Fold Class I SAM-dependent methyltransferase.
Amino acid sequence: MQVLSNCSRWLLDSPTVEVYLYIVRYPLMPAVAVLRGAAILETQRRMRHNFQDRERWRNPDWRTKFVAWWEGYDLAALSRLARTAPASRLPLRGPVAALGSAAPAAALPPEAPRPDADLERLENLQLDRQGEPVWSVARTEGAQMLWGQDCVGPGDSQWMVESVRSFGLNPAKSVLDLSAGLGGPARGIVDSYDTWVTGLEMSPLLAKLGMERSKALGVSKKAPIGHYDPEHFNQAGSFDLVLADRVMHRVRDKENFLDRVCDCVKPKGGVLLFDYVIEGTPSSWESWNGWRDSEPLEVYPWSATRMADELTQRNLDLRISEDLTQFHRRQAVDRVRRLGEALKTAVPEPRVLKALARELALWWSRLRVLGSGLRFCRYVAMRPT
């Protein structure tokens, strides 16, 4: 506890901790200190273990030399490899062939593909501006700690279920979700209205994990999740409702994207959009530029008026244009408070901790501009007969 106490005093100056503290003020301070302190202790423990292990082989005592001779190891060769191999090299497999009477090692069978190799490949299909995966398995785990099971952003499945209630969904109708994520909201709509939801997601990794989750829950036919590129969107078929949560501001060619969206809507069908839009002049250009720089990918937000005009120009009847900025902020802040309570009883492993810190830093930069030049709005439009 004394070590954690010392860590806590040092951690108060950390920029990452400011992310936690500014959002929820002081209730999160003990949880953050323990979380970061545990991560530091774990890192130090691993470093000590690796150093001691390397030193044992580089400077063996007589017991180690005897065991190595008996088992047929060449310690001199191992020492040379340890000095020349890169730090990231995988551990040696099997015995090293030694000079003398020791029999040569048998050829090792080819290494079987690791179960997570496909997920790593999908992670690297979508990289941010620093060359890092936009979404990783660790980030999905951290995001779910923050936002809830099968959710990767504010607004859980029940919130989306309530948002689409006015569209009168039933088993004879179909929905296209262009912001499927891990598929939680899509499956919630299926469970509540017994309707059919086709989920599309920009992240290859999230689409893969979302589809696996739908299969595991037995709704792969009613709530399939697939990958798509909104810049080249051309979905076949037509739907009674097309919805997208925080997608438009990430699309460069929004005019073409909206054209394709309207092509998917049946007569008397609806469009439901939640998105970030520009409103006036930012109160702080430093915060505004900080937000744009912190986003993993480029953002291209329209103004609130432009969004409404573009929907109207496509022969859609714009029914609702609503500012939900304060509600959106409360969603995020409430979730961070819940996270603080959860961290008092459970600390994630270091890889998830790192991803969680990144997620919080991203949302900190968003909250700084929400209501100060950036707004979160809801648009409901209907296609006439």
User: Anything to note?
Assistant: Confidence is low (pLDDT under 50) at residues 1-35, 81-106. DSSP finds 15 helices and seven strands in the chain.
